[in-house]
Amino acid sequence: MAITYTFPGDFKVPELRGITFTGGEFCNAQNRWMDGENAVRFAAPIINGKAIVALIAGKPELEALFAERRAAKEAKKQAAAEYAKTPRGQRDALTEAEYNSYNPDAQPGSAARKKYYAGVAARESFDADHPELVADLAAERTAKAKADYNALSDFVKSGS
């Protein structure tokens, strides 16, 4: 989301008074990693060779945008937590763990290979307990493959 902000006419820096800046992104102005985002950095224009960074504090418009963003992030986090409780979310977590533990260079019998096989076994066990989910996923894959094929041009379908 690009942010637009107009500095007030009585702003303490005379060069910025009444100027509207666009293309802003939330950032951390003081580079204190624990503080999180506390400012907006604008892409242009640059005044006196310096990029324009506006602290959020004390600017109601920016504070409102930041509060909206924080609320959206929290809603997304809540939705992800709810999804993780569903069987599909649980399977996604098992599949991701299995995928991330795969190491093509792992030797047979190594700890890395055992971890991968444990992940495969956990996902397969979950799939055995949820055959309806596996059937739904297979049907979705088939439908997507069909839709992808139908989206191809006749030229490509004919093998040219």
Q: What's the arrangement of secondary structure elements?
A:
Elements: E1 3-6, E2 20-27, E3 39-44, E4 53-55, H1 60-84, H2 87-101, H3 111-129, H4 131-151, H5 154-157
Antiparallel strand pairs: 1-2, 2-3, 3-4
Describe the protein in words.
The protein is an alpha+beta fold. The chain has two domains: 3-74, no CATH class; 85-151, no CATH class. It has five helices and four strands. The protein has a four-stranded antiparallel sheet with strand order 1-2-3-4, with helices on one face. A hairpin with an 8-residue loop joins β3 (39-44) and β4.
Summary, kept brief:
This protein is 52% helix and 13% strand. It has helices at 60-84, 87-101, 111-129, 131-151, 154-157, and strands at 3-6, 20-27, 39-44, 53-55. It is elongated and about 70 Å long.
Name the descriptors.
single chain, 160 residues, alpha+beta, 2 domains, four-stranded antiparallel beta sheet, 5 helices, 4 strands, 52% helix, 13% strand, elongated
The total count of helices amounts to 5
Order of helices and strands: EEEEHHHHH
Strand order of the largest sheet: 1-2-3-4
From the helix content, strand content and strand pairing, which structural class follows?
alpha+beta
Largest sheet, in brief, is: 4 strands, antiparallel
Radius of gyration: 26 Å
Count of all domains: 2
Q: Percentage of helical residues? A: 40-55%
Low-confidence stretches: none
**What is the CA-CA span between the terminal residues?**
43 Å
**General form:** elongated
Task: Tell me how many strands there are.
Answer: 4
In what range is the share of β-strand residues? 5-15%
Mean pLDDT: 91
